[in-house]
Amino acid sequence: MTFFSLRFVKILLIHFNLILQQKITLVSSQTSQNINVLFINELDNDAASKAIDIVQTYLKKNSNYGLSLQIDKIEANKTDAKALLESICLKYADSIENNQPPHVIFDTTKSGVASETVKSFAQALGLPTVSASYGQEGDLRQWRDMEEIKQKYLLQVMPPADIIPEVVRSIVRKMNITNAAILYDETFVMDHKYKSLLQNIQTRHVITAVADGDSARADQIERLRNLDINNFFILGSLKTIGQVLESVKPAFFERNFAWHAITQNEGEVSSKRDNATIMFLKPVVYPQNRERLGQLRTTYNLNEEPQIMSVFYFDLALRTFLAVKEMLQSGAWPANMEYLGCDDFQGGNTPERNIDLRQAFIQVTEPTSYGDFELVTQPGKPFNGYSYSKFEMDINVVQIRGGTSVNSKSIGSWTAGLDSPLVVKDEEAMKNLTADTVYRIFTVVQAPFIMRDETAPKGYKGYCIDLIDEIANIVHFDYTIEEVEDGKFGNMDEKGEWNGIVKKLIDKKADIGLGSMSVMAEREIVIDFTVPYYDLVGITIMMQRPSTPSSLFKFLTVLETNVWLCILAAYFFTSFLMWVFDRWSPYSYQNNREKYKDDDEKREFNLKECLWFCMTSLTPQGGGEAPKNLSGRLVAATWWLFGFIIIASYTANLAAFLTVSRLDTPVESLDDLAKQYKILYAPLNGSSAMVYFERMANIEQMFYEIWKDLSLNDSLSPLERSKLAVWDYPVSDKYTKMWQAMQEAQLPATLDEAVARVRNSTTATGFAFLGDATDIRYLVMTNCDLQVVGEEFSRKPYAIAVQQGSHLKDQFNNAILTLLNKRQLEKLKEKWWKNDEAQAKCDKPEDQSDGISIENIGGVFIVIFVGIGMACITLVFEYWWYKYRKNPRIIDVAEATSTPPGKDVKLAEGIILGQTGKEYEKANAALRPRFNQYPQNFKPRF
After folding, report:
1. β partners of residue 35
2. Calculated CA dihedral for residues 924, 926, 931, 933, nearest 10 degrees
3. CATH number at residue 604
C-alpha cells in the first residue's frame, strides 16, 4: 500500500469520527443534565480557578458527558471570616431566590479561616460538599466527629501539595535522620503539619517558612545550625529552592550537611552555587496518563503551575460533577430537596439529607489526568483525611557545579501516600546523600586526658579521646576537635560573661566540651553535663621532691672534720705514748726478757707495734696481747674506753643521720601550707582551683561583715549581745590570708610555668602548686622530681559538657552507663595511668624501713679496695727491700779461709762470717743477722 492510499484511509477515519461525534452530541444534548455549583476558592489559588474554567469548557466541548454547569464563584478572604460568610450567604440566597439552589459546593480553600468558614456553612445547612482542603481527619475541626449521614455528603480529598510533605517522613525513616529543618514557601501549607509530620519519630525538627531576602535566609540557616541541625529540607517552587541554596555559606555543603529539595514543579533545579550536591524530588506523571494530560495542555491550555495541582483540581471537579449527574439521573438525588437559608438556621435545625454522594463519587470511572485517586472504600474507616491523590515522585541526585546542574541521576522513587516507603535503586548513592553526624568538640590540652599527637587520626590522644571514640561507636557520629583559644574550661567574670569551653557552648559554636572539666553549679546554669565519667577529683598540692644528697663517703660525714682530726691525733698520741712507756718501763718485755722467756706471746711494743695495737683495738678483732708493764696497760685500757665511746657514738649517729633527711617534710597538708611563710604557693590563673580559693576568701569576708554588723548593732539587748560573744573572732581568716599570699606569689598562667616554678624552687625560695589532683598525679607519675603533698579537697566529678537542652545529654548518658557496666572505663584508667608509656622509672622513695643504700655506704668498699691496693704496694716494697737492700749473705768460715795465702781478704759488705764444727752446731749452724743481735756491751738503762 502506497503512502497516498494510507493518507486517504486516515482522512476517511477522521471524517467518520467527526460524524459519529456529532451524532453522539445530538443524542446527548437531548438528555443533558444541568448542575448548579457553588465554587468557593481562595484569592490566590489560580490553579483551582483555572481548572474550574477548563472543566466547564471541557464539558461544553465534550457533549457526550451530557452535563452542563451553572457555576457561582466566590473568592474567599483568608483572614476575614465574617465577610466571607456574608458573601457565601448572599450568593446562596440569590440562588434560592432564582430557584437554582446549588446541588454541590466545590470547595478549594486550603486551610485556616476560609476553609473553616466554608465547612461550618456546609455542615450547618446540610449542603453536599466536595472539598480539596489541606489536612487529615483531625485537622478538619468543623467536620470532626460527624454523624454517619453527614459523612456521606460532606467529602474531602487531600490535594498533592498536602501529600508531598509526607515524603519527608519517609526520607527521615529511610536515612535514620536525627535532626531536620523543614523550610517551605507559599506553595505549601504546613500549619497543620507541625505536630503530625514526624510524629512518633525520634527526630528533632523545626518547621518554618522560608525567610524573605538573601541576608534574612542566611541568618535563618545560621540560627538553625546553631540548634544542632545539619539536615535541611526545602519544600517550595524551583525559584525558592534556588534562592535558599544561594543564600547558604559554602561550609554548609560539606559532608556533615545534607540538603533535600522537594517541589511540586516538574522542571529542573538551578542555582548559582559553585559546588553542591543535593537530593531533588519532583512529581512525575504516570505513563498511562500522559496522553490525556497532553491533550489538556494543548487543547484546553491547562498549563497553570504547579501542573500537578491544576490537574488535580480538574480531575476532582470533573469527578464531583459526574457523581452528582449520576445520582440525579439514577434518582438517588432527592427530587424536592429542602434548602435552609442562613437567616433561618438556629443551631439545631439542619435539614436531614439522605444523600450518599460518597458512594457515587467512588464509583465514577472517569480516568484521571495525572495520578490516580486513592479513595477509602473500606466500611468503618473515615473517608475524609485518608483519601488523596496518588502519584509518584522521582528521587534524583543533583550536582550543581559553577551555577548549573552538571549531573542528575535518578536513584529511586516515592509513591505518594500517608505512610509510603522510599523505593531506592542505588543504595550507595543514597548513603552518600546522608549528612554525616559530625559534632564540634572543643577541648583543653591536659595530660593524660587530652594530649597532642600528630600521628593520631584526629591529632590528639588520651583518656578522653578513647572515651569519646567509644561513645561514638555507640551513638554513631563523627567529630572534629580543636583547642579553645584561651585554654580555659570556663569561668564567669564580674560582668557575668563566660570564657573558655563554656562560652563556646553558650554561643552554639561547640556541640561538646571534652576534657577534665569539673561539674560546677554555676556552669550547670548555662550548659548541661552528662553523668560523670571520672571519679571525684579535688585540689591537691604539688611540691619538689626533696633530694637527699648521696655520697659514697657519707659515713665519714657523720662526724665533723675537726672530730675526725682529733680522733686521728688521739690515735697517734696514744700510740706514741704506749711506745715511750714500753721503752722506759723496767717491767716491759723488751727490758725484762729473761722473766718472760717462757711466755707463749712475746710481743715487743716498738713504735710499729703500738700503732698496730691502737688501730686493731678499735675493731672487733681486738688489739691482741697487751703490754706487760702496768703503765702500758693503763694506757691501753684508756684507749679501749675511748674507742668504745667513739664507736658507739658513731654507730648511733650514723643510723640517725641516714634517717633525718627522710623525715624532713615541712608541709604535709593545706593547713601546714597556710601557717608558714617560707614556701610560696599559688594555683593556675583562671583555673577552678583559683576560683575556689577566691570564693572562699570572699565568703570569709562576707561572714565577717555579717558578724561585725550584728556585734555593732546598738539595738541588741545585753542578753542578745552576749549570745554573739561566744567567739573572739567567729570566722576563720585562713582562706583570706591564703588568697592574699597567692596573689603576692603571682599566679602562673600555664601548667608548664607552674611546673617550672616548682622545679626551680630551692630551700630558701620554695614554691608549691595547687591544682587538680589528676594533673598533679600524672605529673608526679611522669617526673621523678615532683611529689604530691596532703589530701585532696573540694572534690568534684569530671563529665562531658554539652549545650543546654541538647539531645546529646541523654544519648551520652546511656553510652557512658553502658561503658561503665562493661568496665570499659576501668580499662581506660588502667591504660592511661598504670600502663602509660610516659610513666617515669623512678627509684622508690626511701622511708624509715629501708636499709642503707649503696650510694651512702659504698665508700666502705672503696676503703677495702684502697687497703688491698696499699697492701699490694707494700708487699712489693717488702720484697724489694728484703732481696736487694737488707738481706745478708751467710757463708762458712772455711769458705772464707780458702782464699789463697798472701792475699788480703776483703769481704763484701753485708757478709757475716760463720764457722762449721760441733761447737757451732748448737747455734743451728748459722749466725743471726747483726741487726737482731744485741751488742756484748749492751746494758739496760735502769
Report:
1. 69
2. 40
3. 1.10.287
Judged by DSSP in three states, 53 sits in helix
Is 516 labeled as ligand-binding? no
* Contact of 175 with 429, CB cutoff 8 Å: no
> How far is residue 611's CA from residue 348's CA, in Å, rounded to a whole number?
141
Q: What is the pLDDT of residue 379?
A: 83
Q: What is the pLDDT of residue 840?
A: 65
Shared domain for 708 and 835, answered yes or no, is yes
How many structural domains comprise the chain? 5
- Indicate whether 622 belongs to any domain: yes
- Residue 730: inside a domain: yes
Residue 919 C-alpha cell reads as 761447737
**Collapsed DSSP state (helix, strand, coil) of residue 378:** coil
- The alpha helices in 804-853, defined as continuous H runs, are 808-821, 824-829
Tens-digit pLDDT profile for residues 920-931: 444 444 444 444
If we measure between CA atoms, which residue out of 432, 442, 284, 462 comes closest to residue 371? 284
Residues 70 and 146 in one domain: yes
Query: Is residue 315 one of the residues assigned to a domain?
Result: yes
Same-domain check for residues 268 and 402: yes
Answer yes or no: is 552 within a domain. Answer: no
For residue 578, give its domain range: 561-658
Residues 407 and 447 in one domain: no
Q: How many helices (H) and strands (E) does the chain have?
A: 30, 28
**Contact status, residue 33 vs residue 66, Cβ threshold 8 Å:** yes
For residue 417, the SS3 value is coil
Is the same domain home to 377 and 334? Answer: yes
Using alpha carbons, select from 904, 673, 623, 905 the residue that is nearest to residue 789.
673
For 267-296, write each residue's pLDDT tens digit. Answer: 888 888 878 888 999 999 988 888 888 989
Q: Provide the pairing of β-strand 404-415 with 422-424.
A: antiparallel
Tell me which amino acid residue 56 is: Q
- 133 assigned to a ligand binding site: no
β partners of residue 461: 451
Other Cβ atoms within 10 Å of 142 Cβ, number: 16
Burial 208-222 (b: 16+ CB within 10 A, else e): eebbeeeeebbebbe
102 CB neighbour count, 10 Å cutoff:
22
Q: Does residue 743 sit in the same domain as residue 792? A: yes
| Domain CATH for 498 | 3.40.190.10
Q: Residue 772 annotated as binding?
A: yes
Three-class DSSP category at 709: helix
Cα–Cα distance, 141 to 143 (Å, whole number):
5
* 911 strand-pairing partners: 889
Q: In the 8-state DSSP scheme, what is residue 932?
A: G
End position of a domain, from candidates 401, 416, 432: 432
User: Was 169 annotated as part of a binding site?
Assistant: no
* Residues 575, 639: Cα–Cα separation, whole Å: 9
Euclidean distance between CA atoms 665 and 679, whole angstroms: 12
Q: What is the predicted pLDDT for the residue at 728?
A: 54
267 plus 348 within the same structural domain: no
Closest CA to 601 of 584, 620, 624: 624
Q: Which of 322, 352, 386 represents a domain boundary (last residue)?
A: 386
Q: Is the dihedral of CA 22, 23, 29, 35 positive or negative?
A: negative
Which DSSP category does 594 fall into?
Answer: T
Give the cell for residue 229.
541541625
- The C-alpha cell at 402 is 559553577
* Distances 803 to 395, 814, 876 between C-alpha atoms, Å: 35, 17, 89
Residues 516 and 608 in one domain: no
CA–CA gap between residue 194 and residue 11 (Å, rounded): 59
For residues 626 and 788, what is the distance between their CA atoms, to the nearest angstrom?
A: 59
Asked if residues 735 and 693 have their Cβ atoms less than 8 Å apart, the reply is: yes
Cα torsion angle, 615, 620, 621, 622, sign = positive
CATH code for the domain of 122 = 3.40.50.2300
Q: Which residues of the chain have pLDDT under 50?
A: 1-30, 663, 846-849, 893, 895-897, 899, 903-942
Give 290-318 as a DSSP string.
HHHHHHHHHHS---PSSHHHHHHHHHHHH
